[in-house]
Every structure is written in structure tokens, then in C-alpha cells.
């Protein structure tokens, strides 16, 4: 196939036959988040590269290997957003939202870009629904955030997702943990990939989520962060669990979750499925109490999660999760001849103003072909307008589901 008629590797089209499903799911997520007090935020698709290298962290796979970075014509280094949190925090700081009542709760639907090896559930352009709760350090917020994710999945009828939670502590606990990791990986140094050798000195925690199978095998037996967290972080984690228990949200503590982005502190979590292959994490998030300061802003303990739309849709498809039927068009007006076609256009214009869904012939087809088309569209009703209808001033409205046909006056049809 010619290059110009083939989408770029790792990207995909959402075709009209499926788009209503995504629209339904996305709207449901936004609506549920609204009920938790979240309001939508929209930030640019590209940002200064430094926002991500500082925010996401320059020892992460995302920043080191996966970013779509380029110089624009003004010589600035620009990056297509690999995720939504850094941009949301940048906007929060830039617009002084920290002066508003806290926490500020924002939600978003965005495309994200990562130069990863494409496979099922892993794309180079993908979409996230995300929420960020900015300006609270209380553990109740962590549990409420997780409850929001839980509510979304249960509203959509998605089953079999396991909620896994962990605490990765604060910078203080991190120092002890890094030392333990350093010692462990130092003894396996010869088997680590080049990138991880560099990480060993700078940020050994990132070795834990290296995608190389060799590093993964070594990382399996590495010390677990939960064994190194301080009393305050442990107390915070206990309160999060207490709230989850009180809300009847089932979870397992998975001490191996560290997440792939540097900004996380304390609570981290993932909703994981075993039904969509190796890329089973449908939703991931956690607390990031230090991000605002890392970006040069005022201290703003915060937390959030993002849910991969493509992975969610894959899972819903694998589970045959019922979705509402696509909305059907109310009426197709078939017309015979030029004069009737003009009448069809006139009626359609009036009906559309009243919010009724209408199509008529804009392809110059025969009545037979028009009716075939209407059938394929799955419209609820049809009328045919020809010379005799114009002469008699009457049309027959046919119910395409086999219901009764009704005769109506053509004059003022749109009002009846
Ligand atoms: P993340 O774990 O990197 O976290 O991504 C969140 C979700 O996006 C994943 O669980 C997955 O469903 C989806 N996802 C990630 N990469 C891909 C890909 N290459 N192809 C398809 N889907 C993908 C974040 O992005 C954080 N910003 C989440 C967050 C928000 N943490 C706090 N607030």
C-alpha cells in the first residue's frame, strides 16, 4: 500500500462504526468524575521538553527512550505529551489555581505519545482519561481517588480487574531504599542493560521497571520498597487501606508496584486485567507530593490516575460488556425528481432545527437505491416524496421496525 494511505506504525484510527462506543465510555467517565467534584481541563498537546524531563524524570524509560521530541522553527525543544499529569500541574501553577479552594480536582481526555514498541494494548499514540486532585496531603484523598476509578469500572460493567496498591514512601524513605537497591543491583551489575547501568548510580528504582527481560528477571528478587517506608508513610498507607475497606473496595497490596514515572510518592496503584495480554494495566496512578516543587512551583501535595482508553475498550470487547445501542436516525426522506428533492431539503432543514435527525438524498440516487441506503443506515422512519405526494399534499410515514404506516399532510409536516 502507498505510504500516504497507511497510518503511522503504532497509531490507529477510530472508525465511524465504533466511535459511538468510545464517546459513550468517555462521557460516562467525565460524568462520574463530575460527581466526585472534578472539572475538565484541557492543556496543549505539546509542551517544553523540560517539563517532562523534570516532571516525569530524566532517568525514566518515558523520558530516556520514548518521547517525541523535536526542535520547532524557533529552535525550542518541544515534546508531544507522553502523559497528562505534568501538563495539568504546569497549568495549575501557571494560572495560580493554588489560590483557589483546594483541592482543585481536574479531569481530562487526551491523546498521548510514546515511542514504544507497538504491540496489543501498546501504541505510540494512545488516549487517556485522567484525573488530578491537586492540593491535599490527606490519605482520605487517596482512597477517594481510587474509589473514583472503582466507580468508573463498575458503572461500565467491566469485570475481573484487580486493584493493586502499594506505598513507595517519601524522599526520606527513598534514600534508605535506594541504598538497598544499589547494593542488590551492584551484585548483578554484569547482567544489566546499558541504560540500567547508568540508572544504578542515578536512580536505581528505575531499574525495576526496565522493559528489558534480562533486567526484569533480576528486578524480580530486588528489595521491596514497602519494607523501607518510614512511620508516617506507613500510617498514611494504613489510613488509605482503612478507607478502602470502609467503602468495600477490594484490593491487594502488591509490593512490587513502583510505577514508571519519577514523580510518585507514597500511595501508588494499578487496576490490572489478565484478559488483554501482556499490557494488562488499564489504569495507573498515585500520589505525587513533590511534583509542584520539582517544577519550581509552590509545595502542592497531589495525586491522580490515568486510564488507557484503548486498553479499556479492548477489555470491554474481550468481555462483551454490554453498551447502549447506537442512536438511530429518526427519518429518511426519499425523493423522486428534482422538485421533490427540494421539498425534502426544505422539510429536513425545519425538522433538524427542531432537533430531529434526518437525512435525504444528496447523492442523486434512484428511490430504490435511496430506500436501500436508508435501510442500511437503520433509520426509524421513512417517507417518499414524488410528484403524486406533491400533488396530493400527503405523505406516508413508514415505521421501519414494522409498525404502522401513518398518512400525514405534507404542508406543515415538520410541525406535526
Ligand atoms: P501510566 O501508567 O504511564 O501513567 O499510563 C496510564 C495508563 O495509560 C496505563 O495504565 C495504560 O492504560 C495507558 N497507557 C500507557 N502507555 C500506553 C501505550 N503505549 N499504549 C496504550 N496505552 C498506554 C501515567 O501516564 C500517569 N500520568 C498517571 C497519573 C495521573 N498518575 C498520577 N496522575
For this entry, give a set of tags.
single chain, 416 residues, alpha+beta, BirA Bifunctional Protein, domain 2, Rossmann fold, eight-stranded mixed beta sheet, 16 strands, 20% strand, binds histidyl-adenosine monophosphate
What report would you give on this structure?
This protein is α+β, with helices and mostly antiparallel strands and 416 residues long. Helices cover 38% and strands 20% of the residues. It has 2 domains: 16-170 and 229-318, Bira Bifunctional Protein, Domain 2 (BirA Bifunctional Protein, domain 2), CATH 3.30.930.10; 331-415, Anticodon-binding domain (Rossmann fold). It has helices at 16-35, 49-57, 61-66, 85-94, 139-156, 171-186, 194-202, 213-219, 231-246, 291-294, 309-318, 338-353, 367-377, 387-392, and strands spanning 39-40, 46-48, 69-71, 77-80, 104-113, 125-134, 162-167, 252-253, 265-272, 281-287, 302-308, 331-335, 358-360, 381-385, 394-399, 406-409. The strands form 3 sheets. It has an 8-stranded mixed sheet, sandwiched between helices. It has a 5-stranded mixed sheet with strand order 13-12-14-15-16, with helices on both faces. A 3-stranded antiparallel sheet has the order 2-4-3. Helix 1 packs antiparallel against helix 5. The relative contact order is 0.12. Residues 83-85, 114, 116, 121-123, 126, 128, 130, 132, 260-261, 281-286, 304-306, 308, 310-311 line the site of histidyl-adenosine monophosphate.
Might you state the CATH topology name of the largest domain?
Answer: BirA Bifunctional Protein, domain 2
Rg calc: 27 Å
Mean pLDDT: 95
Name of the level-1 CATH class of the largest domain = Alpha Beta
Assembly state: single chain
Measured distance between first and last alpha carbons: 52 Å
Shape: elongated
Q: Helical residue percent?
A: 25-40%
CATH superfamily of the largest domain: Bira Bifunctional Protein, Domain 2
The number of helical elements comes to 14
